[in-house]
Amino acid sequence: MKRESKMSSFRFRSQVSLAFVALCWGQGQAIAGDLEECLGRAVERIEAACTAILNDVERPTEDRVKAYGARSRFFNARGKFDAGLADAEAALQLNPQSVGALLSRAYAHQRTGNFDAALADYNHALELEPKNPSVLASRAGLRIDQKAWSEALADLDQAIALRQDYAQAYVARARVHVEIAQLDQALSDLNAALSMNSTVQNAFFWRGQVYRRKGDVDRAIDDFSRADSSSSPRVTMPAPLPISTRCCRSRPMTRPLSSNARQPWRCRPNLPRCTTPRSHRRLHPR
């Protein structure tokens, strides 16, 4: 993706610069390169770089806090919540005021079902940084897991007010609007998010859900197809409008339809035909 390409270019330039400075100034600047990799986006390097920092007893406390926090996030992203929790705890022992470590510990608690502990950490983080939109959006994620829709909306409204280009917060708020059947508000939020970032995670999936519930099947198919081709979750179609994104009118079946064959879906181009149950024929005429 474009952002990753830019980050790769930036990282390459930074590494070249750091190598040159290390040759001139010695080992001290090489440490900065380790920290950059620990905090960077080159996933294959994060764990090793952070561990190297943590194994170096001469590293300053600030670097160790950052390394524990980054490795905690790394473990959480891979579902290793016990390891993520342990690293977040270690970071907070070194610096109890680390908002990043609080968020990482809260997320590990949240994903393991310890909602009370997660909420306590999110609340503490907000006490430290009450105007941080990321903290508000993170707490909203917990509220969503708890199905506390009004509380989630309040946090997301505040996060967006603080940062009006926060695309992921718009998607999260849209999801809440979908859950409480406020489809027009959800569609507005999703369109706003996609206008800011056309690759924002889950936006096409939730917009497809909105269109499906509105009965706009063609647009739902289009968005679900985009969601399938992105990093969004794989679509599973609930009743009463199951939607296939793997069929179309533009290519023939591998075998001819019999006289009593079921009607095909009307779908996106360049995909093979498939069939739909008899009860849905009226929705998808040939």
Question: What characteristics describe this protein?
Answer:
286 residues, disordered N terminus, mainly alpha, single chain, Serine Threonine Protein Phosphatase 5, Tetratricopeptide repeat, disordered C terminus, globular
Radius of gyration of CA atoms, rounded to a whole number: 24 Å
> Helix share of residues?
55-70%
Low-confidence stretches: 1-31, 232-286
- Coarse shape: globular
Overall structural class, as computed from helix and strand content, comes to mainly alpha
By DSSP (H or I, 4+ residues per run), the number of helices equals: 13
Per CATH, the superfamily of the domain at 147-250 is Tetratricopeptide repeat domain
Give the H and E element order: HHHHHHHHHHHHH
Q: Would you report the number of β strands?
A: 0
CATH fold group of the domain at 147-250? Serine Threonine Protein Phosphatase 5, Tetratricopeptide repeat
State which percent range the strand residues make up: under 5%
The span between the termini is: 38 Å
CATH class of the domain at 147-250: Mainly Alpha
Mean pLDDT, all residues: 78
The CATH architecture of the domain at 147-250 would be: Alpha Horseshoe
Give a quick account of the main beta sheet: strands, pairing sense, barrel closure. Answer: none
